[in-house]
Each structure stands twice: as structure tokens, then as C-alpha cells.
């Protein structure tokens, strides 16, 4: 039985991934800042088979609260062996790109706070003798696009961080899985009106893929798989051409 | 990404906007300037789930379980959850849904909005009778909790209300205990509607589930031949036998429209009837194969081709069973027959909804490929037969009935209009009632 901790427990992809852990009868701890949303996910998971499901309310972007949070997690689930990082913020870039404070804030949520928690969680797994850690990054990190480079940069940093951490943790039986998500229909992308076309995927599908990647101890997956090829083409474009792209 | 088509794929669905609430709580952003209609899993055959030019509310994210009260056998869940998902989680605990239709891929909201019925109607009535309460979100921002004792007018209008009274956000369903995951069933051949009528009356006494498959391509002398299936839940090895089998087959593309033709229909139906060699077979079968045989083929509606198809479901009073023979003969002569015909005797349980379809009598379901105007003309002739017999048509399957036929089928339509939400509308409503 797994003892699963999900940072961003009420996020759309996380709540779908969590259903698979629940069906397995795992114990699940959900962490997020909205108590009501967490409780809804909690009720759902318990009915889907989770052996236990608890919640902790915490503002994950506040790095000052992190060490207390980790102690609380360790008290609640001392044998934590599975972790999923699934929280983030996707602002409309046009609204924030000229405001350094907002850029910093967005980067803090998506990168700085994440690496602080990921480090502590990975070390906790290491102390517990091993485990599984998955974090949702993004294809946006593969290259900085005009309309999404702030989010993309944070995710690029996260991906690189996870890559190094993966090598560091490998000898200790802690598997670090990077999930690069493409365009997924979730609460985070709710503000995007036009979701036609094959590039958009369902959150339920993404959740299943996240679960599978973590339990199979994959190093890096693209969700859906075809993004690997799409981003390959994207990355190969010479910068003198790329700088002309408006989207 | 997702296309919001109906199951028969006529007419083509073209909403102006999709609204996708993330949960039950909070303001639902109903559009200010256009009409709106809830959309679940798109298993309505006709145009009752289509709102061209207007908005659709996609209930995909309203798919959470909320609470299970084991003592009272009550399950509370969000309305976008599918019956299949509910079954997957309640069967291992020894429960079943009191009414299930022919597919598990319908939402709770859709099941209420069409007041669906199943093979056990003669025992359990329709789905709406097992709903304790639900919450309805209206376009003016109000949330109404509806039950038999609270907002009961709205309760009775929303059951079978085709999604036109508001958006159901969550519902409470009374579950049923079952002894195991098998059905003890019998298949009996019959050679006429008269024989079916006697058999089904007798079967309804001892069996909870009864339904008949009819040969829709039988000639005059074989007309009305078919196989009656009847069954009861039975105890078996244990609840964990229920596994929702992944559909092994998928129809990935539209078949050419000539796939379903007189010859292929005749071949399939004759084979199906002759396959059962003895007059009576007894066996035990799993829940999934007894209740949801078609679910094992994903997207089977594509077999009808890109033109789509109509499903015609009517009911006639018990003493008018000859009207069904006239319908079958007419379809055979005008259309070469139907590839799939299902017949069932409804019980006397009264249905809750103002626009509920189930009532005492025989309900006949006929699939016909869309051949354009000739098909619609033929279906209008069938309407005349049903009208003369004092029967009715089922909106969940309909994409072409006339305003007169709709009014005739549902005498409570006038009363229903009082409860309809002014911002909610559908192609079906505009076609049959004329207002937006």
C-alpha cells in the first residue's frame, strides 16, 4: 500500500491521478490552500477506495512555511513513500510580462517554492528508504515562446532541477519522474476559450498518465506522447526564425 | 478535441460556446446573450442534447462522489458522473442502481433529465422514482434543492425535463442491494407478437428483468418473431467479480453508409434468431453482458455511416399490440426492415416527471438508417399509427417528431412550460414547441 502525498491536491490533473491511487487502496494526503476544494476531492477519493484520505491546508508558495509543513506531513504520514507535485499558476502573460513583481511572484509559485518542497520531500523519501516522486512540468519549458516564456522559464528550471535530482537520488531508491504536460483542459487553462484541435487533451487522460509514469518509475514522459516530437521540431528551429513567431 | 454530437449524429451539433464548470460550487457562468443547455455524455439519439447557435454546459468536471449513506442506501454524487463509474464502485460493496438503461455511459443528470427506464420497469418504475433530491442551478443564479417535499413542482418538471429547467449539479440516488454479480437468465424464442404478449405477462410475474429482441427484417409470415430475455439477480462467488471490461472493439471511423442495407440486416437478424437452436435456454451471465451488451463496442453508432441514423421509440397501450405489428410491417416494406428492434412491456408504476415517457403498455424501439426525406416521411407514417393507438414517443430518442405529436404524447406540456428556465433551450424544444 502506498502512502501518497499530493502537493496541489485539488488541482484537476492531481485529482484524476489520485483516483488511480484510491482504486489501489492507497492512503492519500492532499495539500493545498483551499480547504473546501480539498474536502471535495477527499470525499471523492474515499468513495473510490482510498484506505484513508487526509488534508492539510497550506499556502505552498510561501517558502517560510515549508519546514513546518514538512514536519506536519511527517507527523501525519510517517511512512510517506509516494509524492506528486501538481500545483502551479498560469497567468495570462500579457498581463504580467511588464511587471517585475508579478513575474517574480509567478516564478516563485512555479519554480522557487517547488524546488524547496521537492528537495525536502525527496530527502524525506531517502530517509524512509526509498520511494516515488513525480512532478508535473510542461512542454512550455522546452523553449521560451513569445506568449509563454515566463511560465516556460520556470518550468525549464524545474525540469533541469529534477534531472539533476534524479541522478542524485537514484542510488537511494528514490525515483524522480518528470511529467511534461502539453495542452491539457483543466482549471489552470480554463481561461483559454478555444480548445479545438487535436493538441488539447483531457485531464482524465493526463491524470492516468501521471499515475502510470510515477508507479512505473519513468524518468521523463511527455503527456500525451506526441509532444516529444512536436517539441523536437520546435527546438530545432534556428533562433533567427523562432524570434519571428508571434504566439 | 471533443465534439458535442448526439448519438444518432443528426443534426450536426454546432454550439456557439462551451461552458465547463469546474465544480458544483461557485457561480456558474451562464451566458448573458445566448441560450444554454446541459450536455453530459451525448447518448441522446436525436436533438434533445443539441443547442445550435447557443451554449452547452459540459458537465465533465462535475464527476465527483460526495457521500454514501450505507444505512439509508443513499448515494450522493455530482450530476456529471456516469452510471458506469457509479456501478464500478458500488457493485463491489454489494449495491446496484435500481434502474439502468441499455448503456452505462450516461450521466446521472442525463438519466434524470430523460427519466430513463430499464428492463425492470415493470418492477421498479423509472429512474426518477429513485431520486431522493437534487440541486438545480437556474440561470438567474439561484440554486434550488428539489425533492418530493421541497420545490416539488420543479422536481417533477426536471425529471424527464430534458435539461430545460436548469443544470442539475448533484443528486441523491437510492441504491439497491444485490446478492451477487451474476444474473440467472433464460432466453425464449417466440414466433408472433401474440405469443410475446403472453410470454411477457407471465415472465413479468417471476422475473425482475425482461426484454425482447425482435427480428426487424422478418417477412409477413415470420413477422413478430424474436427472443425474450428474462432474468433475476442471483448469489454467486462474491462481489469482486465485477470488472468493467475495457471495450475490446472500437469502430474508429464511419463505415460507408451502405454497410447497413437490406441484405446485411436480413443476414444479421436471421443469424441471431437461428443462433439459438432450442426454444428455451437457461444460463448464468455477468452483469455487464446482460445489461450492457452494446457497450462492448465503442462508437458502434459509426456503423451507420456519416449520414447517421434515427432511433424510433414509441409506446402503445397493452390492448393495441397490433399497432406494433403494423409498424414493423411498414418499416419492412418501406425501409427493408430495421437492424435492431427491441420490445418491452412497461409496468404500471407511475412516472414522476411531467414529461415522463414510461406509462403502461408496450414500448417498441426501432433503429433506422438515415436515408433523408424518405426516412423522415416513413417515421411520420409511424407517428400516425402510434397516434391512432393512443400512444406516445420518447424524446430521448427523437430528432424529428412534430409539435402536434409532442403535445399529444405529453398532455402535461402546458404545465411543464411554467417551470422551464427561460435561458435554457435546445434544438428539440425549438423544433417541437417553437419558442426559444
Helix/strand layout:
The complex is a heterodimer of chains A (247) and B (436).
Chain A: E1 3-7, H1 12-23, E2 27-32, H2 35-47, E3 52-57, H3 66-76, E4 82-85, H4 93-96, H5 100-127, E5 131-138, H6 149-169, E6 174-181, E7 183-185, E8 200-202, H7 203-215, E9 220-223, H8 227-236, H9 239-242
Parallel strand pairs in A: 1-2, 1-4, 2-3, 4-5, 5-6, 6-9, 7-8
Helix pairs in contact in A: 1-2, 1-7, 3-5, 5-6
Chain B: E1 17-19, E2 36-39, E3 55-58, E4 65-69, E5 74-78, H1 83-90, E6 95-96, H2 108-113, H3 121-124, E7 131-137, E8 143-147, H4 152-158, E9 167-174, E10 176-177, E11 182-190, H5 193-206, E12 209-214, E13 226-234, E14 249-250, H6 262-275, E15 280-286, H7 287-291, E16 297-298, E17 309-316, H8 321-335, E18 341-346, E19 361-369, H9 373-388, E20 392-393, H10 403-409, H11 413-419, H12 427-432
Parallel strand pairs in B: 1-3, 2-3, 14-16
Antiparallel strand pairs in B: 4-5, 5-9, 6-10, 7-8, 7-9, 11-13, 11-15, 12-13, 12-18, 17-19, 17-20, 18-19
